[in-house]
Specification:
CATH topology of the largest domain: Methylamine Dehydrogenase, Chain H
Shape: globular
Number of domains: 2
Helix content: under 10%
Number of helices: 4
CATH class of the largest domain: Mainly Beta
Radius of gyration: 21 Å
C-alpha cells in the first residue's frame, strides 16, 4: 500500500476549525519588517479564535472525553507538530500549511475556516500576520503550551498505553499475510493476523513516520518519515529481525510515501515537493524529480517500473518517465489536495490508477495517455485507497470511519462498512483472502471482511 499521510501518509488534509468570535489586539502590522513575535501577535489569535475547539483532549470525572476538533490540537507546540502528520503549520511554507490554506479560502467556500455558519472569517490583518510568521520560520519563542496529561477516573489496564494514541498513518500486510505492520507517531508495531495481538515493536529513528512498504521479495521494510520542515528520513529494516540496515537522508522535509522499484532501488516522496529514486546498495540518489508546486503525498509505479505516478497538495496527478527523467503527463481534474494513489492489479489493457482527494472524489485514470476515465463522489472525504486483489472493486477509507467499496465501471458505491470511530486514515488488503485492515484515529486497527 502506498501513501500519504497522515498518512497519512500526507493524511490527511481536511479538518474543521470552529473559532470563538473575539477581537484580537495586534501590536505590530504584518507589513512591518519587524520579526513577528509569536507570543504577542500570533498566540492571542489562536487563544481567542481557535483554542475552544482545538485544545488537548479532556476527560471528565465520568470518563467522557472531549477530543480536539478534527484531530487538530493547537494549544501546545507538541500538539501542533504532531497533528495531521505535522502539516498544520509547515515552517517557512505558508501555502503548504493547512492552517493558512483553510483561513485564506474565498468567503463562501465550503472549506473555509471558520465555517460560514460560525461567523466571519479572520481579518486580512490576522491572516497576513500568520502568513508572515510562518514565512519567518514559525518559531514559538519560550511558549510550549499545554503540557498537562488528560486525567480520568477510569482505570487504564495497560500502564504502558497512553490515554490517547496517535492515528495510524500507514499499515501493510507482511507478504505471507500472517502479520500486519502499522506505523504512527507512537512508532512501528507488528501484530499477528487475524487476532491482531501485538507481536513486537521495531524502534525507528524518525520522530514522525508516515508510510511503509515491503520490498518485492518481502525480506526488507522501508519506512518513511522525518522531522517537519527540517529533514526527511527513509529507514530500511531487515524484516526477519527488525534491525536497521540503512538510512537515506536527502529530503529537506518529511517523507510522506515510499515505493519499491525493485530489490535494489525505491522511490520516495516528500513535503519538500521532490521525488527521489534511490540506489539501496550504495545509499545514493539516482534521480531527483521536481515539478510539484506543493508537497507530494503519494506515489506508485506502473507495472514496468519505468513509469512513476505521483500526486499531492497541488491537486495534480503527475506521470514521470524514469528512463528520460522527464515529466510526461500532468492531470489536474482534482479540485482540492489529493491523498493517495493505487494501481489496479491487472495486466490487461492500459494501466488504471485510482486517486483519492479532499474534493470527496475517487478518480480513475489511464496515466500512460493522460486521461481521466471517470470519478465517483463520496459522502465523506477518502483518505486512503486500495484495490481488491482481483481488481473488481476499489476500497476507500473516509473521515467518518466508514469503508466504502466502489465499482470502477459503474462508479457506484456498492457497499459500506463502519469500521471505527473517528477518521480512518489507512488501509491494506490481505494478499490472499481479500479481507481489509483499517487504521485510524486514536491508534485504532480493525479487521473487516468485504460484503
Amino acid at each position: 500500500m502506498m501513501k500519504r499521510t497522515q498518512h497519512s501518509n500526507l493524511a490527511i488534509f481536511i479538518f474543521s476549525f470552529i473559532f470563538v468570535l473575539m477581537s484580537t489586539p495586534l501590536a505590530i502590522s504584518a507589513d512591518s519588517e519587524t520579526e513577528i513575535n509569536f507570543e504577542i501577535q500570533i498566540l492571542p489569535i489562536l487563544q481567542n479564535r481557535c483554542f475552544s475547539c482545538h485544545s488537548a483532549l479532556k476527560v471528565d470525572a465520568n470518563g467522557n472525553a472531549t477530543k480536539p476538533k478534527g484531530g487538530v490540537q493547537l494549544d501546545s507546540v507538541k500538539g501542533i507538530e504532531t497533528s495531521l502528520h505535522g502539516e498544520v503549520i509547515v515552517a517557512g511554507e505558508p501555502t503548504d500549511s493547512l492552517l493558512y490554506q483553510r483561513i485564506t479560502l474565498p468567503e463562501g467556500d465550503t472549506g473555509i475556516m471558520p465555517p460560514q455558519e460560525e461567523g466571519a472569517p479572520l481579518t486580512k490583518q490576522e491572516t497576513d500576520l500568520i502568513r508572515k510568521w510562518i514565512e519567518q520560520g514559525a518559531t514559538y519563542g519560550e511558549w510550549k503550551g499545554n503540557q498537562s496529561e488528560p486525567k480520568s477516573s477510569m482505570t487504564n489496564t495497560d500502564p504502558h498505553q497512553p490515554t490517547v494514541m496517535p492515528p495510524i498513518t500507514s499499515l501493510a500486510f507482511s507478504p505471507d499475510g500472517k502479520s500486519v505492520v502499522v506505523c504512527s507517531q507512537a512508532g512501528l508495531h507488528v501484530y499477528d493476523f487475524p487476532a491482531l495481538r501485538l507481536q513486537r515493536t521495531i524502534e525507528v529513528s524518525a520522530r514522525n513516520i508516515h508510510d511503509l512498504a515491503f520490498s518485492p521479495n518481502g525480506d526488507q521494510l522501508a519506512v518513511g518519515g522525518g522531522y517537519p520542515a527540517i529533514e526527511g528520513i527513509i529507514e530500511i529494516f531487515s524484516w526477519s529481525d527488525g534491525k536497521s540496515m540503512r538510512m537515506l537522508r536527502e529530503h529537506r522535509d518529511s517523507v510522506t510515501a515510499v515505493a519499491w522499484r525493485d530489490a535494489s532501488s525505491l522511490a520516495s516522496a516528500s513535503l519538500d515537493r521532490r521525488l527521489i529514486v534511490w540506489d539501496l546498495y550504495t545509499g545514493t540518489v539516482i534521480q531527483q524529480l521536481e515539478g510539484h508546486s506543493k508537497g507530494v503525498s503519494s506515489l506508485c509505479f506502473l507495472s514496468d517500473k519505468n513509469i512513476l505516478v505521483s500526486t499531492g497538495i497541488d491537486q495534480s496527478v503527475r506521470v514521470w518517465d524514469l528512463i528520460s527523467g522527464e515529466l510526461i503527463r500532468s492531470m489536474n481534474n482534482h479540485t482540492l489536495p489529493v491523498h493517495d494513489l493505487a494501481l489496479r492489479p491487472s495486466d490487461a489493457g492500459l494501466p488504471v490508477i485510482v486517486s483519492a482527494g479532499d474534493d470527496r472524489t475517487v478518480r480513475f485514470w489511464q496515466p500512460t495517455i493522460g486521461r481521466m476515465v471517470k470519478f465517483a463522489r463520496l459522502e465523506e472525504v477518502p483518505l486512503d485507497t486500495a484495490w481488491l486483489n482481483d481488481g473488481s472493486k476499489v476500497v476507500a477509507v473516509c473521515t467518518d470511519g466508514v469503508v466504502r467499496f466502489v465499482d470502477p465501471d459503474s462508479v457506484e458505491v456498492t457497499s459500506e462498512i463502519h469500521a471505527l470511530n473517528g477518521w480512518a486514515y489507512s488501509l491494506a488488503v490481505h494478499p490472499t483472502d481479500g479481507s481489509v485492515i483499517v487504521g485510524g484515529q486514536n491508534g485504532q486497527v480493525r479487521h473487516i471482511i468485504p460484503k
